[in-house]
Here is the input.
Amino acid sequence: MTAHRFTRRALVSAGGLLAATTLVACGSGGTDGGSEAASLDSNADLSKQSITVSNWSGYMPKDVAKRFKTATGSSLTATEHATNEEIMAKLTTGADSGIDVAFVSGQYAQALNDAGLLEPIHRDLVPNIDNLYPQATQLAFDKGNKYSVPYTWGTTGICYRSDLVKPAPTSWNDILSPDPKYDGKVTMLSTERWLALPAQKALGYSVNTTDDAELAEMKAKLSDAKKHLLGYDNTTFYEKLVSGEAVMTEAWDGWCGYGMAENPKIKFVVPKEGSDLWSDTMVVLKGSKNKEAAFAFVNMMLDPKVHSWVVDNVYYNVPNKAAEALVADSLKKQFPQLAVSPDDLAKGEVLVDLGEDSTKYTDLTTDVTASS
Here is the structure.
């Protein structure tokens, strides 16, 4: 188990959407980004260009700069951000961030585009975009991949010890109102949009609801669930499953895989009420002075041999048909969530930026987690 597997979604809090809201209010753009696409040269000498890429730690191969240099002649500097909030702060100060390509979750890409900060995707410079599954071209935050290219995608469900939970959980209510014998052995995520998710789906509401009455019902259900919990845990829940301290946890599919790697009795299930479909994306900043090289990087990351590295090393699905074809059957058998079809993933509801209404989720999280 390597350290990079602890860093990806540890603090991907929807609180950053508040920053995105401010960005939209102050930005120049509308839903189409607010300005024309740059005129780019498909025959540009990339050896004269260099780019800076910001990504989460461990979310791409360590030798990516060497690979990029070999493939294009262009140099690459890789920097890291720990959270969506951190990279949003860098990109939205009004000053030149020096970043050419950033990895952000889908709803954050939407907010950046609404503020006019993203370069539209030049498909002629990203031929490997054709490797994407059709479902990955219709994500609600960016239908048609106009300004973002999905890098990973997945869902949220219940990660559990199959030897300690009988019968197996099938509903979000199994962690919201567990059998009394499991009291104090359940954890939930505390990041804002995901804290709300179990209650949303258990009540039959959208993951993007902003209805005050529905939010009030969700708050009541989440507050009641709190008395059953061991606690809120975004980073070490699978370790608690391995030790037996917890028997059921709300979890992102890839992170459940880290527990499976240590104990095959740990399983993952998407509750019958349904769940979300999250996606992490690559975006090119409008302020980039080396856009041809930036798009060459995006294209390289969609190369099947490069993109399949994510599945092999991070245990997350990639929306790339050619890359998925390279994933070993043995890995899919060990981690069944990697064998989920694009059609099944697409049944999840895509998270979108809620603008000013994102503060409602901030308030909900504060009220629930602070309550006695």
